[in-house]
Structure formats: C-alpha cells, structure tokens
Write a structure and sequence with these properties.
Length: about 200
C-alpha cells in the first residue's frame, strides 16, 4: 500500500508493482478479510485497505443533499442476507411531460462556488488525513446522467429523453449548470486528483 505507487500510476510512471484500486462497498467482505464488521467498527475499512494493498481510494463528494424532489428506486439484494434490500420505490414525477417541464436550477439551485469549495476542501482534507498512505481522490458523482437517475429514476428519465430531444436538452443544461459549479468548486481545492463519474 503506497501513496507514491498510486501517484506514479496517475502520472503514467511505472511503479515497482501494479497499483491497486477498486470500488468496494461490501461490509461482509471487509469482515471476512479483517475479522471486523465495518458497520460496527468503521476503522475496519482502513484495515481492509491496508490488508488488500490499496494505493488509490476512489472517493466522490457531491455536497449536501439536494433540497428538492428526487426519486427513490429502492435497492436490489446485493448483501448476504438481503440487508441492503429496499423496496421503497417512489417517483414524484408521474409523466415524462412533467420531466420535460422540470427546471433543475429552479428546483435545486446552483451552489455558490466559494462556499462549496470550502465545504469540499474540508471534506477532502479530512479524508486524505484519515488515509495518508493512499491517494484519496476528489470527485463528483451526480453529473448529467446520474443526476437524471437520482431526480427522475430510470423509467421517467429514459421516457422523457426519447420523447422530445430539444426540451430534454434544456433539462440537461440545468444539471450541467449545477455540475459545472461543483467542478469549479472542486478546482479551487488543494485536492490533486479529481474523478467525474459519468
């Protein structure tokens, strides 16, 4: 496990061994490797990264939750015993026409870049300090498509997108404006590595 190895890989240098990163959100795997369930002891995640020889830790932060309507798509069973299963499915949009009339900027607002930069800087600093042996990335997840999925769910998203390209493009423009403010905020931080989800 090595910050240097992760940094070399990002710069396309040849480290002594192949650097390691992956996205893992499976607490039972962490328990199997470390002997401790991270739901009971969050420090188990750090031990897991050490024991599995991570070099770069994928991390994103979109800022505070949106203050408007979003969809709950539930969650399929992924964890052993179905502990992550969620059959709470709800969409506040009843028709694709409602999606086409939606204005993301009016609903969610565009964050103030300087305020959001301070928020991101603090979060990234805490994350990197907690994981000093890893490259801890900055990142933004809810870009255009992920934002649409969170707001509308898959059915309303795809139904509206295919119904009227020009009107849906206006909806995407709103999500782009929100994403761009977050990108600009992340760019003002000291984080040296940034990941955009879509």
């Amino acid at each position: 496990m090595s910050y240097q190895r992760g940094w070399q890989a990002l710069h396309l240098d040849m480290p002594d061994t192949i650097p390691h990163t992956e996205y893992c959100s499976h607490p039972r795997l962490v328990k199997a490797v470390t002997g401790t369930d991270p739901r009971d002891d969050p420090a188990a995640w750090g031990r897991f990264y050490e024991m599995t020889d991570y070099d770069l830790l994928w991390s994103t932060n979109d800022g505070p939750d949106w203050p408007g309507r979003t969809t709950s798509m539930g969650h399929a069973e992924f964890q052993e015993g179905g502990t992550d299963f969620d059959d709470n499915v709800y969409c506040p949009f009843q028709t694709p026409e409602e999606v086409l009339a939606f204005d993301p900027v009016a609903e969610y607002g565009v964050p103030d870049v300087d305020e959001r930069a301070a928020y991101f800087e603090e979060a990234w600093q805490k994350g990197q300090q907690a994981r000093p042996t890893l490259v801890y990335t900055a990142g933004y997840y809810k870009t255009l498509f992920s934002a649409c999925i969170q707001a509308f769910g898959w059915e309303m998203f795809l139904g509206a997108a295919g119904l009227d390209y020009d009107r849906f493009d206006r909806v995407l423009d709103g999500f782009f404006e929100i994403s761009l403010a977050n990108y600009r905020a992340w760019a003002k931080t000291s984080a040296p590595v940034f990941i955009a989800h879509d």
